[in-house]
Specification:
Distance between the termini: 50 Å
Number of strands: 11
Order of helices and strands: EHEEHEEHHHHHHHEEHEEHEEH
Number of helices: 12
Helix content: 40-55%
Strand order of the largest sheet: 6-7-8-9-11-10
């Protein structure tokens, strides 16, 4: 059996779209909201099964990975998050690069020698890797209008992955993936599925307008912290709002906090675009934290740890 495990954001979805366009396979899908990162724990295998893992930290999934390999499955693992010690195993193949300017879809694009590059560009825009997206797109000879379309689609797919549960999302990530994968080009998808695309665009625009009305909870020369209200639109916009803030003030680090169903905070951190480093280290210092150098998060920060987080955040970037 083929089992495809992927993050529910733009990068995870577009990485799998590329792979399954190039290597079609009937597969069991394992995914979830963007913050569902320990996805391998949900995977049961038998000897001879094939597992593809995209855009989730190997370090966070190491125990389950060891179990799956021990049970006789083969694993193909592509990612750009913290990996920790990568095990050497005859049934494990990895493509892992934690460079701040790389995402999983760009790694898959390299693996496939650019065969479905427009999807990789879409994902890179969704991950707010604007320079990397534009660099990759040069071989496609796109107009400025078409490049903007890929940017908008990537941002909207990424936005759709955020929320406290699937009920917060406009589309479940596995359902959205199934809508995308029949199309060799994102432009074909946008032309054939205007209702889906317009729903994502409208949702993003409406939620972002509300977020931009918020005032910072804390700000200093090098950092800004926003605390969003406990409502669905705030949970949906929490990640991409951080990207928007980073683009508007590239020399500052930003943290966006929203409330979870457990009554604590979910934290999204964006390092300064002029110094895309340290976000993974900062968040990993807190339980349930992790991510990559330029963008990371904490799934559950107790309410009484807010001051400690802000202190650590400012110390990291001042």
């Amino acid at each position: 059996m083929q089992i495809d495990v992927f993050n529910g954001d733009a990068d995870g979805i577009c990485a799998l779209v590329q792979l399954r366009l190039a290597q079609p396979a009937e597969a069991k899908l394992v995914t979830g909201i963007k913050r569902d990162i320990e996805l391998l724990a949900q995977v049961s295998v038998e000897p001879g099964d094939h597992v593809t893992v995209l855009d989730i930290s190997l370090e966070k999934n190491r125990k389950a990975l060891d179990r799956i390999l021990g049970q006789g499955a083969e694993v193909f693992y592509v990612d750009h998050h913290q990996a920790g010690d990568i095990p050497a195993h005859p049934r494990l193949k990895t493509i892992i690069n934690t460079d701040a300017n790389v995402c999983t879809s760009l790694l898959v694009d390299q693996y496939l020698e650019g065969k479905y590059r427009a999807w990789a560009v879409t994902a890179a825009f969704g991950d707010n890797l604007i320079d990397s997206a534009e660099q990759a797109a040069k071989t496609l000879a796109l107009s400025a209008v078409d490049l903007k379309k890929l940017n908008d689609l990537g941002v909207c797919i990424n936005y759709n992955g955020y929320g406290a549960n699937l009920g917060d999302l406009h589309f479940a990530p596995d359902a959205l993936y199934r809508e995308l994968v029949p199309y060799a080009s994102p432009f074909e998808f946008m032309a054939d599925n205007k209702a889906i695309y317009e729903r994502l665009l409208t949702g993003y625009s409406d939620d972002m307008a509300l977020a931009l009305q918020m005032k910072p909870e804390y700000q200093a020369a090098a950092v800004v912290v926003y605390l969003l209200p406990d409502v669905a639109w705030a949970r949906r916009i929490s990640g991409v709002f951080g990207n928007e803030l980073a683009n508007r003030s590239p020399e500052r680090a930003h943290a966006v906090l929203s409330f979870t169903e457990k009554g604590d905070y979910q934290v999204s951190v964006r390092a300064p675009l002029t110094n895309k480093s340290g976000a993974d280290e900062l968040c990993s210092a807190f339980p349930t934290g992790g991510g990559r150098k330029g963008a990371a998060g904490i799934n559950h920060l107790p309410l009484d740890n807010l001051s400690a987080f802000i202190t650590a955040f400012e110390q990291k970037y001042r």
